[in-house]
Amino acid sequence: MRTALLQSSGRPGSVAANLKVLDEAAGRAAAAGARLLVAPEMFLTGYAIGADVRRFAEPADGDGADAVAEIAGWHGLAVAYGYPERDGETVFNSAQLIAADGTRLANYRKTHLFGCFEREHFTPGDEPVVQAELGGLRVGLMICYDVEFPENVRAHALAGTDLLVVPTAQMHPFQFVAESVVPVRAFENQMYVAYVNRVGVEGEFEFVGLSTLAGPDGVARARAGRGDELVLGDADPVLLAASREANPYLKDRRPGLYGSLSRTI
Question: Whole-prediction pTM value?
Fold first, then answer.
């Protein structure tokens, strides 16, 4: 499945402008044969928007989701994007996957919040594995900091995730996560990982780009630079099956030895 990674911060604070960027990218991605377009963390509204998080937050089936569904339908490809989700009085840092026909396939709430900004404005989710079937692959959702916890990604591997989609807001000086950690996660869990970042300066944050689609062999199938960019790569189920057959990590596990991993420090 050809996957397009939209590396952009759009225009923080303007949902209309960000939907326009998404629409334009979806057109280019579809023309290049992509069946899935992935946008960064909090793409719908911008990340560094402070207390406006609560003002912009909307339900998973809100106006923003309807607009993204229209974009997906117009261009005939699925779209995954980040946004602030409101559920009653609670606000989550969420990512949603919408199919090419506009159907809402999956909605994920970030389980590991990073830094004072996120902990002040969001509530952590409590469902670690959220998946949907898309294009013959089992697609899982995760957001940014979540992928840095090996237990999180291993849970997806054990649940059969083939392509892990990770909208992110990776900032300086942690670019080694994009460069090194993400390909390792893909290799050790025998899956594809689409890690899609913001770019540029927003408030106190400097986002580093370097979005990547990493394969189960640990090789980056697509890699962006430090600016606005749309890159494409293929998540190949044939290569995935062959890699899983050759790599025994999951079969050689000894779960009985790992009880200490769930202990609190």
Answer: 0.97
